[in-house]
Design goal:
By secondary structure, the protein is mostly beta strands. The protein contains no helices and three strands. Helices cover 0% and strands 46% of the residues. The chain is elongated. Strands 1-2-3 form a three-stranded antiparallel β-sheet, with no helix packed on it. The chain starts with 9 loop residues before the first strand and ends with a strand.
């Protein structure tokens, strides 16, 4: 909790599902949601570690899907 600024907290939810097609191949999907208070400013980072910051009070959503194969 941010005790220095009023209404600057957020709640986040996320779900991810992995489906193992074989010993070396996996499909994955996931979703994330951040519900921000009026003065809170958060964002969801991508795989590269960079993300977009929203304006204070903006909620953020993200969806991922992909395939991972090990050689």
């Amino acid at each position: 909790r941010n005790r220095a600024v009023n209404n600057a907290n957020a709640t986040s939810y996320s779900v991810r599902y992995d489906y193992f097609m074989s010993k070396r191949t996996t499909l994955y999907t996931g979703i994330a949601y951040i519900r921000a208070d009026r003065n809170a400013q958060f964002g969801i980072n991508g795989a590269t570690g960079t993300g977009l910051q929203g304006a204070p009070g903006d909620n953020s959503h993200a969806l991922i899907a992909g395939i991972r194969h090990s050689f």
